[in-house]
Design brief:
Elements (H helix, E strand, L loop, with lengths): L10 E4 L7 E4 L9 H13 L4 E5 L15 H14 L3 E5 L9 H7 L2 E2 L4 E5 L2 E6 L9 H10 L2 H8 L3 H20 L11 H11 L3 E4 L6 E6 L2 E5 L14 E6 L2 E6 L3
Parallel strand pairs: 1-6, 2-3, 3-4, 4-5, 7-8, 8-10
Antiparallel strand pairs: 2-11, 6-7, 9-10, 11-12
Helix pairs in contact: 1-2
Length: about 260
C-alpha cells in the first residue's frame, strides 16, 4: 500500500471581531457563455451584507493569465471584484479551472489571495477551507495533470506564449475535460478521499471542512467529530433548475442561502 500523501501547510486567517458574516462560494465557472449566472453573481457581490466573501476556486471557467483581464468578459468580472472589494473583504483561492489567477490581478482588484488549504478562525470556530481538487486522490489522471500545471516551470512556459495561443490551448483542455465528464454519470464522479480529509482536519484542529469542486452540495459527517460542507456549483444558464447558493457563517453557525431566480 502506498504511503499517505504528505500533509500540506495549513495557513491561518483570523477574522476580525467586528465581522458580522462570512460568505463562501465556489464553482461558478463564469464565462461569456453564462450571462445569467454572471448577472446573478454580480448582483450578489454588489449587494451582499456579509463582511467578507470567500471564493473557493473555479470562479472562472478558464483563466489563461492576468493579461486577459483588460478586455471583454474578463474585464467585466474584474470590475465586479474591484467594486465589491472596495466595500468588504474579498478573498480568493484558485481552483482547477482558474489556477493561473495571479497576484497581479488580485492586487489590482483589492482581493486577498488565499492558500489552499487555509484555516479560517472566526466566530469562535476553526474551519478548513479548500477548493477540494487536491483531495480527489482517486482521480489519478487529474492528479497527474494537476501536478504538471501547478509546477512553476510549466506555468512560466505557458504564460510566455501569446494570449491567443494560450486561449486555444485552454479551449482544447476544457473540451477534453467536458467530454470526459459527459462520459461519466454524475453519481460516479470522483469524490474527495474522506480519510485524507479527516487527516487534514485532525492535523489542522478543524472539525469542519468547507470545499467545492465536486458539484455535489452536501452536509456530511465524515467521522465522529468531523463534518464537511460541500458548496454548490452555480448555473443559471443551463436547461435544468437554476443553481446559485451561498454558504454563510455567522455567530449562530452555517446556513445556506439560495439565490437562483
Amino acid at each position: 500500500m502506498p504511503p499517505p500523501p504528505a500533509l500540506p501547510t495549513f495557513w491561518e486567517f483570523e477574522a476580525p471581531d467586528d465581522w458580522t458574516a462570512i460568505d463562501f462560494i465556489s464553482d461558478l465557472h463564469l464565462s461569456s457563455a453564462t450571462p445569467r449566472t454572471f448577472e446573478v453573481w454580480a448582483g450578489y457581490m454588489r449587494g451582499t451584507t456579509a463582511s467578507a466573501v470567500v471564493i473557493l476556486g473555479d470562479l472562472f471557467e478558464v483563466w489563461v493569465g492576468d493579461d486577459a483581464r483588460h478586455e471583454g468578459f474578463e474585464a467585466r468580472c474584474v470590475d465586479v471584484l474591484a467594486d465589491t472589494a472596495a466595500h468588504r473583504v474579498v478573498a480568493f483561492a484558485c481552483g482547477n479551472r482558474d489556477f493561473l489567477v495571479g497576484g497581479e490581478m488580485l492586487r489590482d482588484c483589492g482581493v486577498r489571495a488565499l492558500s489552499d488549504p487555509t484555516v479560517l478562525v472566526g466566530f469562535g470556530e476553526r474551519l478548513l477551507l479548500s477548493h477540494g481538487d487536491a483531495l480527489c486522490l482517486d482521480d489519478h489522471e487529474y492528479q497527474q495533470f494537476r501536478s504538471m500545471v501547478r509546477s512553476p516551470a510549466w506555468q512560466r512556459d505557458f504564460l510566455a506564449k501569446p494570449l491567443h495561443e494560450r486561449q486555444a490551448i485552454v479551449r482544447s483542455m476544457r473540451d477534453q475535460s467536458e467530454q470526459r465528464k459527459r462520459s461519466t454519470a454524475p453519481e460516479d464522479w470522483v469524490d474527495i478521499d474522506k480519510a485524507t480529509a479527516v487527516r487534514w482536519m485532525h492535523e489542522a484542529h478543524t472539525p469542519t471542512l468547507i470545499h467545492g469542486h465536486t458539484h455535489r452540495p452536501a452536509h456530511e459527517v465524515l467521522a465522529p467529530g468531523y463534518m464537511r460542507e460541500v458548496l454548490s456549483d452555480w448555473d443559471c444558464d443551463g436547461p435544468g433548475t437554476p443553481r446559485a447558493e451561498v454558504l454563510r457563517l455567522r455567530g449562530g453557525g452555517l446556513t445556506r442561502i439560495a439565490l437562483a431566480p
